[in-house]
TrEMBL record:
Entry keyword Metal-binding: yes
Signal peptide annotation: none
Gene assigned in the entry: def
SUPFAM superfamilies from the UniProt entry: Peptide deformylase
Protein name per Swiss-Prot or TrEMBL: Peptide deformylase
Family designation: Belongs to the polypeptide deformylase family.
Keyword Electron transport found: no
Gene Ontology MF term list: metal ion binding; peptide deformylase activity
Length: 184
């Protein structure tokens, strides 16, 4: 099932998501639906809050970007109950976009290296270190389960400059190739 993507202004995007247990009803199907939704929208990652479900779950598939970012070769993961336990490395500026903020791309500064603990789709615990663009994608999706968006990292001036575009998104005035769900 392909879900509509929740867009800017919807309260679920600002909630800190809840942890889940291995017996979460319909989890396997939800994960499959998230993959399907993400691929339909040409995304690299998708967090459950982006489809209106406030749980600590996100999926990432960076394989399509491996030509530009070799560390993404074979990088396809399910992250459940994730917690970033360490940020390291110098901050790096890169343009980011988001399915919940269609048409907006902005430079965001993020640490180049992270350590994260999470459960996979089988509830096997992992404690891993990621660097480069893989670390950036994880931080972006992790922000969604923490109730944050990449625009939160912009300067006050930059936020003012894109305010009209953000308001338009929340009113449904955004061109997308995928279905969206408005805040109301």
């Amino acid at each position: 099932m392909i879900y509509p993507v929740v867009v800017y202004g919807h309260p679920v995007l600002r909630k800190v998501a809840e942890e889940i247990e291995s017996d979460y009803e319909g989890l396997s199907q939800l994960i499959e639906d998230m993959w399907e939704t993400m691929y339909k929208a040409d995304g690299v990652g998708l967090a459950a809050p982006q489809i209106g479900i406030p749980i600590r779950l996100f999926v990432i598939d960076g394989n399509d970007m491996a030509e530009d970012f070799p560390e993404l070769e074979g990088f396809k993961r399910v992250f459940i109950n994730a917690e970033i336990v360490e940020f390291e490395g110098s901050k790096v500026n890169e343009a980011e976009g988001c399915l919940s903020l269609p048409g907006i791309r902005e430079e965001v500064s993020r640490p180049s290296k992270i350590r994260i603990r999470y459960d996979d789709e089988n509830f096997v615990e992992h404690d891993e270190v990621y660097e480069g663009f893989a670390a950036r994608i994880i931080q972006h999706e992790y922000d969604h389960i923490e109730g944050k968006l990449f625009v939160d990292y912009l300067s006050p001036l930059r936020k003012r400059l894109i305010k009209r575009r953000l308001n338009a998104i929340s009113e449904g005035k955004a061109e997308t190739s995928y279905k969206i769900k408005l805040p109301r």
